[in-house]
What does this fold into?
Amino acid sequence: MDFLSWMTSIQQRTEAALETALPPADIAPARLHQAMRYSVLGGGKRVRPLLCHAAGSIFGAPGDILDAPATAVELIHAYSLVHDDMPCMDDDDMRRGKSSCHVAYDEATALLVGDALQTLAFQRLAARLAGVSPARQLEMLALLANASGSRGMAGGQAIDLASVGLRLDIGALEFMHIHKTGALIRAAVLLGAHCGEAPPDALERLGHYANRIGLLFQVVDDILDSESSSETLGKTAGKDAAQNKPTYVNILGLRESKAMAGKLRQDAHDALSCFGVAAARLHELADFIVDRTF
Amino acid sequence: MDFLSWMTSIQQRTEAALETALPPADIAPARLHQAMRYSVLGGGKRVRPLLCHAAGSIFGAPGDILDAPATAVELIHAYSLVHDDMPCMDDDDMRRGKSSCHVAYDEATALLVGDALQTLAFQRLAARLAGVSPARQLEMLALLANASGSRGMAGGQAIDLASVGLRLDIGALEFMHIHKTGALIRAAVLLGAHCGEAPPDALERLGHYANRIGLLFQVVDDILDSESSSETLGKTAGKDAAQNKPTYVNILGLRESKAMAGKLRQDAHDALSCFGVAAARLHELADFIVDRTF
It folds into this structure.
């Protein structure tokens, strides 16, 4: 199967898995459930589920087991977007080409949507996974929680808010992104590998790959944000610069940022070398992150 | 040990367990960690930890194992208070006798505090518990998630918001409270029992006790809210009536509400009869919930 067909197939099965995990829209409280579904379904590149499935496939983990952590990670990501878009945070009216949750519904609902999506992520990963020992499944839950909390994603968002208007150096910017986006991307990769009972040294290599991919993702995001129109991006373009947020592009310049992306891609590829062709999808995903135009 | 000494000892050990579970205030992102600690430590009756320890003690579960679910449930409760107080929700400036988190810090920080406290709850309960099988621990995580999400506590908050200004009947009010406060109180009791490997029929009896206690807690809250001053209550008194929120007192009247509280206490006591003196603390907690003046 070529990469694009594989990617489409994972995106489709992820959509179906999310659809099943989310409460039906006609069950009380119906408006909350509708808003949860609105915020999660029918959009998004599903990069984290793709990474999760690609990492699990190295160790022969079955797709229907990988759907659980893939869904959980995507629900955490979705909750963070709903909360990040709120007026007291980034105050963004558009997300994935449609109105943000707090615009389509209201602020109170958006707050509860984010809260309930986070809970649902842990609920999904706490349901027994066939072929994964309960002890390892507990490790996976701990991994997801560590990646999402105040010393992971939520902490990264706090650092991001605190750095608006500041002149960060490249080290401080990297520290923020390792938390804000890197931690959950790393969790996506490692949770997939755990489903295939990956040994510790393989987890270490994949952790290194994931760290590079996490930064790569952000550098490319900054490049796209500085180059694209809102229409192509599906969210408000140039917003970071307008909000005076530090980005790779305004610290390093566009040319240097692109060089950095090339180096990160190479490092990511190198970290996979020990897995040979089994890691082909992860290899291709690094390329995809660099070459995407949306 | 008399009830008040026991209660004080559990409150103290809960404070210590929360103190340990929360990230240190000097670790980055320091402001977020300070705000998390501000919102959780040094206040609160710790009713849910008390219920958790009391239920676990029936089956001989050790206190240091019970600290884990007690902490997790209290962190979920604390997160819900931080988010409920925000301007887009109940817009309350006072909590536990001091400024609400979004007043003491800012709205964006309060949003992240709530998010990160929820994550920390699951993180705490995912760490291995000695003497509890991993499979049962996964059940406990699923139980906590079910109680907290859109079909539990967060869903109850959504129903509460939707009912402002409406004339609810007693059935609809009960439906809301079973979700908003009842689900987490039930989780506190059952998680404690799980730590002692309680058998299914005991869990069922305790579930019944917890359902009565959950409603009892809310009826008494409504009575206190209509009778007390803000100073005694440690939060803005008479707020529900001012916001035109349905309460037991304005649906049933004060006299009927007090009669209902008496009936619920009796039902709660009855549900414990099969456990004999082993359930003395749960029995006393039902009395405490009725007789508290704060």
Observations:
- The CA atoms of residues 56 and 192 of chain A lie 4 Å apart.
- Chain A has a mean pLDDT of 93.
